[in-house]
Amino acid sequence: MSESLTADVGRQGESASSPDAVSFANVEYTWSGSSPFTLAIADFKLARGEKLLLLGPSGSGKSTFLSLLAGIVVPGKGKIDVLGTDMARLSGAARDRFRVEHFGIIFQMFNLLPYGSLIDNVLLPLHFSRTRRDRARADGALDDVATDLLATLGIDRTVIATAKTANLSVGQQQRVAAARALIGAPQIIVADEPTSALDRNTEGAFLNLLFAQSGAAGASVIMVSHDESLARYFDRVVRLDDIAVATRGARSQ
Ligand SMILES: Nc1ncnc2c1ncn2[C@@H]1O[C@H](COP(=O)(O)OP(=O)(O)OP(=O)(O)O)[C@@H](O)[C@H]1O
Fold first, then answer.
1. In the chain, pLDDT over 90 holds for what percent of residues?
2. Is 215 inside any structural domain?
3. Of 29, 30, 31, 72, which is best to mutate to test ligand 1, by the most ligand atoms within 8 angstroms of its C-beta?
4. Which of 132, 141, 175, 200 is buried deepest, with most CB atoms within 10 A?
5. pTM (two decimals)
6. Is residue 100 part of a domain?
7. Any residues with Cβ below 6 Å from ligand 1, and which?
8. Does 4 have pLDDT greater than 60?
9. In this structure, are residues 98 and 90 in contact, taking their beta carbons and an 8 Å threshold?
10. Structural domain total, the chain
11. Quick one: CA torsion of 187, 41, 197, 171, rounded to 10 degrees?
């Protein structure tokens, strides 16, 4: 791993001319331990601006796939290219910077800071990415940009100004998590079952709002779910089983 690459992370991503946002080639990753789990993906591509739904049952490896895609874990074999950058060539710290610069992530449990305000939560990634901070600042004062984004995603302005994050409903938490992923216009939005706690109507409304924002920024969106009924909201639907081979137990080789 070359530390000298770390300084180039933002520039590499920004200047990359690859037609794909993400491409996997002959990737293999193993969770080792007493019951090893291996996920092998021969070929996968996410286009720039594409909205992709990745379906698979519980335990099939969807979160592992997203962790690979976002560089949270690195494959033992193969190559993952994101916005023209070979993720394996970045050090761990450089990958962390690359992730906050280019990815907005909506986690399954949202991972909000309970004691921060709604606006503090939305602005969090901007503390770690100057590019995203500068992009957000181009739209106005940061508190105003965060407030407008939250309002666009359906949170009442009085709630934004006065509510405590710890007291928000699940639907409101989801919107704060989405605003945090979208602020500063990262190129790839990753969402790990963010609608699993919502009813059908709220779910559809949320996805429409999310896509209006991601579309305006030209971002790609990849969302994983086990819920096939969400397919109609996306450009493409992929079943994890069709692109990946999951193996449990030790592999003989
Ligand atoms: N942090 C970890 N440490 C060790 N093994 C893990 C870890 N995370 C996942 N695994 C292994 O990978 C398998 C697939 O898990 P993963 O979370 O990727 O599936 P999933 O499809 O996202 O499941 P769910 O829909 O329930 O969230 C698990 O059954 C487990 O064996």
1. 75
2. yes
3. 31
4. 175
5. 0.89
6. yes
7. 31, 33, 35, 37, 56, 58-64, 226
8. no
9. yes
10. 1
11. 0
- Give, using CA atoms, the residue closest to atom 10 of ligand 1: 31
The domain that holds 114 is classified in CATH as 3.40.50.300
ipTM above 0.90, yes or no: yes
For residue range 182-203, list pLDDT tens digits in order: 999 999 999 998 776 677 777 8
Tokens of 229: 């009924």
What atom in ligand 1 is closest to the CA of residue 66?
18
The answer to whether position 253 is within a domain reads no
In terms of Cβ atoms closer than 10 Å to its own Cβ (0-12, 13-18, 19+), residue 87 is buried
Amino acid at 80: I
If you take atom 30 of ligand 1, which residue's CA is the nearest one? Answer: 37
The answer as to whether 73 is a domain residue is: yes
pLDDT value, residue 205: 83
Lowest mean pLDDT: which of 17-26, 57-66, 118-127, 244-253? 244-253
CA dihedral angle for residue 174, residue 83, residue 67, residue 251, rounded to 10 degrees: 150
